[in-house]
Structure formats: C-alpha cells, structure tokens
Protein 1
Amino acid sequence: MIPLIKNAFLNEIETKKLLADFIIKAPRLSMSEQCFEFEKEFSEYQGASHSILFNSGSSANLAMIQALLNLGKLSKGDKVGFSALTWSTNVMPIIQLGLIPVPIDCEPLTLNVMSSQLLQRLNDTELKAFFITNALGFSGDLTKIKSICDEKNIILLEDNCESLGTEIDENKTGNFGLMSSCSFFVAHHMSTIEGGMVCTNNYELAVMLKIVRANGWDRNLDAEDQNMLRKKFNIKSEFDAKYTFYDLGYNLRPTEITGFLGRNQLKLLEHNILKRNENHAALEPLVKDNPDLLTLNHEHLKRMSSFSFTVVCKTKELRQFYVSQFLGAGVELRPVIAGNMQAQPFYKKYVKDYFDLPGTQFIHDCGFYFGNYPELTSSDLQTLKSCLIKR
C-alpha cells in the first residue's frame, strides 16, 4: 500500500531519538523557550516580523478571527468571504464568532480563488474581510487579489497551511495578507504532530494573538506591553496581574514538544519541499499526456511547494474510474480538501444563503489527491505513474 504519509517526521528514527532525549532532559514541557525560539526561527524563514505558535493550525485560524474582533477590526454581522474549496476550521470560526460566511468560487485549473472570481463576488456582495486558502501547494494570483483588497479596504487573511514555501512574484505565500496561518500537522510540509503558526507584520495583532492564545492574560507579553495593559486597566501589582484577563481568549498554547520538533523539522523543510517537487515533476507529464485529466496551472508561481498530487478528471464518471484504479493499486486517496463547503452538513445547518459555485463544484465532483512526500520510493512512483495512464 502507498499511504497518504509514511512517517510522522522527516528523518523519523533520528527525530524520535532526539525527542526522547529532549523529554528526559527538559526542565519543563509546557510552553517556554523552545516555542519562543521556534517562533523566531520561523519568522526568519517566512520573512515575517512576528510568528505566534499555537497547538494546531485550526487554533491559529480561530485566534486570527478572535484577534480581529477583539481589536474592533471586525464586528459581529460583518460578511467575511472565504475560498469555497477549503478546510472546515477556516469557516467554522467565522460562524462561531458571529460573522457571516460568504463563499467565493475557485478555478479548477489552479484549485484556488483567482482575482476574477473575487471581483465577481464583489459585484453582488460587500465584504469586510476575505479569508483565502492557498490550496494544496498552489495559490491564486495573490498580488492582484491583495491589490483589490487594499483598494476596497477588505482585510485579507491567508490560510497557508498547505502551501508553505510556495512563492509568487518574489514573495512567499502567507505574506500577502494581514495575517496568515500555517499547520504542522502530520503529512504537512513539516510536522510537529500537532501545531500551527500565525504570521503577521502587524505588532498590535501579534500582541493580541498572544493574549488570545493564553486565556486572555498577559503572561507571555514583553514587559513593555504588560506595563501598558496594567496601566490602562489600573492593575497595581504583579500578584493581581497573575489572574487578570484583558480580552476574550482561549487556551491554545503549544507545548515544548511542539517547539522542539518545529526547530528540528524546520532545518529539513527545504529538503522536504525539493523532494516533493521532484516527485510532482516526475508525475505531471503523465497527466499532460492523458486526455481524461486536466493539467493544473502553476505557471504564475515562481515556485510551487507541492503538498500532495491532485488529480482532476474531466467528468464524474472518469473520476470514479481513476479512483477505482488507484485504490486497486493500494494507493490511499482523499477528496480535494472538503470539496464544496456548502455541501457540508454543518454549513447547511448554520448558513441559509446559497451561492452558485461552478468551479468549486467541478473540483468537488471530479477531483481527488494522493500523498506526496520524500519517502516515496522509485517503485511507489512507478505504481502512481501506471495509475495515471489512460487505459
């Protein structure tokens, strides 16, 4: 069988040995220096001013929306656009926190919202924010999308959980929005088992994200920010400050295990991306030669950071055929993220407005993906190639 992922980490055995040794020797395992050092190192890699570590990518998404509400940059009842092809916990915080979700269609050839589709939605709906998903190693034309959002005063957020390392127009995805989220769940570009990050260049948001992450208190803020808050709210002693809560928050803190693994796997990230891209380049010609399949477009990207290998068939019937072909060869498959989000049971329960999303529905009906990771062997690649050939 070719599973979706073979190992939890790159260099699995060595990493587990290092982790075991770290756990034995670590003075504490709750959030501390390993987490803070990982934040600094990730900021350097991403090219962002601030990185705030969370216990998952989903928590990172929740914290971004809560931070915007806490600072008054969003208000309950505001309409927030989102990529219709996305993950559940991109949309759930919008609903949970009293905002109105508005799906924006995706282009089948890029798997992402393009600027033309954003403009089409803006013709009939005024948005306060747009939470875009950079799906499966690809992205839309983010430079144009950012320009539209800047012009119309729309807050742009990015879910970069599946496109870490992708580059467009001399910049990395995740650097176009006011904030972006990243996930370190197993099978992503780098794994801390569970874990996530928010990146931003906005200092005010970075401070609020730390407050949101840890119960609403100030314990993990710099002394200057602590003093400012305590003065504003007339907190007169360190003793009182221990259990003073300044705004709405959660317990979304990571552990030192997350920080340690993040620092370890970050060193291997570029190798991971290069191997994934080599695999993708080896498989893509088979798609181009098969008239049953669509060739996905990544020409607008300076570099694609392949998350998985996505197959989009030209009809539902062809998808059924190719899914059977892959499964018969022992290849583990997945739908293309959550498909058309409007079809999900939770969405139907809480959201009544329905939008026509032809591109997303096509991907929903005709697409699937299989795993792409450095541990794929030459034999694995031959099996995958054989499944992509027209019969």
Note: The two ends are 21 Å apart (CA to CA).
Protein 2
Amino acid sequence: MPPPNPRSSVHQLAEGDSNIILDNEHTFDSLETPTLFIDPMHFNGPGEERFSAMLGRRVREILGTPR
C-alpha cells in the first residue's frame, strides 16, 4: 500500500479549509476483502452493515457525542 501523499488534492483542500477533517487513510482497510463486495466497487449486504457501523463509530470518535 502506498504511503499517504501530502500533496494530494484531498490534503491540499484540507490545508485550506479548517472545516475539513481528514481521517487516517487506513481506517477502513479491514473491509477490503472480497467476501464483503458484490463487485470491485460496491459492498454487499454484510459489507454495508460493517461499513455503516464502523463509520458511525468513527464519526462519533472524531466529532464527539452530540449534545
């Protein structure tokens, strides 16, 4: 896996906008397994469930608990 590119367009956008939060590029690496996809780009049912749960937890970790 290539290292993060600090000059990528995503990193450049985040540098110019304090409202953009970048997470670690490898946060969802554990989902990259053929058993969770119906084709090379789209999750199947179990993949969608795992991604949604992981994303929800990660957003809460980053943003905190709602008031």
Note: Residues 30-67 form one domain.
